[in-house]
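Exercise 3.2. Students should predict the tertiary structure of the chain below and write it as structure tokens, then compare their answer with the key that follows.

Predict this chain's 3D structure.
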Amino acid sequence: MRTFSFEFFPPKDEIAAVDFGINIGRLLRLSPSFVTVTYGAGGSNRERTFALVDYLHNKIGLNTVAHYTCVEASREKIVADLATLHAMGIGRLMLLRGDPQKGSDRFHAPAEGCANASELIALTRSLYGDAFSIGGGAYPEKHPEAASLEADIQNLKRKVEAGCDFLITQFFFDNNRYFDFVAQARAAGIECPIIPGILPITQYDQLARFVRISGASLPIRFVEELEANKAHPERIVQIGRDHAVAQCRNLLEMGAPGIHFYTLNKSRATIEIFERLLGA
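Answer key:
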């Protein structure tokens, strides 16, 4: 069964919260398979994350997946946080190592905590068995800290062996990268669903930042079209939307298990893409 899911982060202020509420209202009528809520660096927005997870899951009725990281989290804190999420009735988690602490270019494992996602996943399984369905992150063009794609896939295999049920990829713009990655993962013995992550470009100045974050490569024609229209914001939105629709259609035609949309809390473009897919 294909899944269609959307990622959000907790709104930062009252105005953002109003916009977020409008977007959620639009999204509800599309009946997504699930939504995910991100967890701030170092647990910096833990309370807002957990409150939003509780609201979306228990008040709105959306199947909600909570992100959780092991950044600056002791074993005691992890155990307490998992208990809170379990008590909320959350059935799915995205368990991630998390980004390096602010001001550092490398991850520092917390004392008496988990050094990586595999350890966090294994700890969760030891505490809760199959009570949670657990997702993990995957990088079609390798994690920025990995020595090679082959090494990264072996690390991914360790995550799956620790108890991952499904994987969601970092966003990418060239589908060949995803298909090659899935083929290599399958060859390594990774059998769980690998859901592709899609992020529609809506502003020209997003391009360099997104490439820096993800390490994603860009199809030449896509870049040329964006470059030629960088002075026309509405045209950039259309180009980004059309490229994402073409990506999604090709991914689904070639057997991808679903699509995960990175919304940046601005669902208009994502919802339009989803509606075009449903109408296809």
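Discussion points: The CA atoms of residues 80 and 271 lie 36 Å apart. The mean pLDDT is 89.
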